[in-house]
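We close this part of the discussion by returning to an individual protein. Part of our work consisted of pairing the sequence of a single chain with a tokenised description of its backbone. What the numbers capture is local backbone geometry rather than side-chain detail. The amino acid sequence and the backbone structure tokens for this protein are reproduced below.
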Amino acid sequence: MSPLNIKKGSTSHSAYNLRSGYGDTVERHTLACLVANEPGVLARVIGLFAGRGYNIESLTVAEVDHQGHQSRITIVTSGTPQIIEQIKAQLGRIVVVLEVHDLTVEGPSVERELGLFKVAGQGDQRVEALRLADIFRASVVDTTLESFVFELTGTPEKIDAFADLMRPLGLVEVARTGVAALSRGAK
């Protein structure tokens, strides 16, 4: 992946009403940012989104290079094509942001998310929860006589579908990691 070429001095527009003014449809994009791993970096990136009214659907952050002191921030956001370009340009202007990649437009990518699901139930509901977990290839990571905690890794859509099926069976709580994504291929 190569860093985006970001134009200096581009015009900015407010994102408070993402559908007005452009006539374009709202699209979901996955952005991957390589940043310096230092205090306040995440706050600056999040501040950019909050200050302009952009929504973050998913956010994951982790150090990826201990020796180089670099972290990767993966952000899933939505907006018109113009708003997405504006977000990428503004991210690129933050000094501690080393690279910005739009995985949605750069080619095929792999997205995964981890979900933990606490399901309480007895009898037939308990059996059905186990059967569905097996179909989805979810692991049982904790169990009591009245509940299970399932672990499931997959696309955000798979995580959503599993949660929807578990709700009527006694879904009590859900914890999700957010999207981790990489582009496919050798580069």
Observations:
- The radius of gyration is 20 Å.
- Residues 4 and 29 are 15 Å apart (CA to CA).
- Residues 27-102 form a domain with the Alpha-Beta Plaits fold (CATH 3.30.70.260).
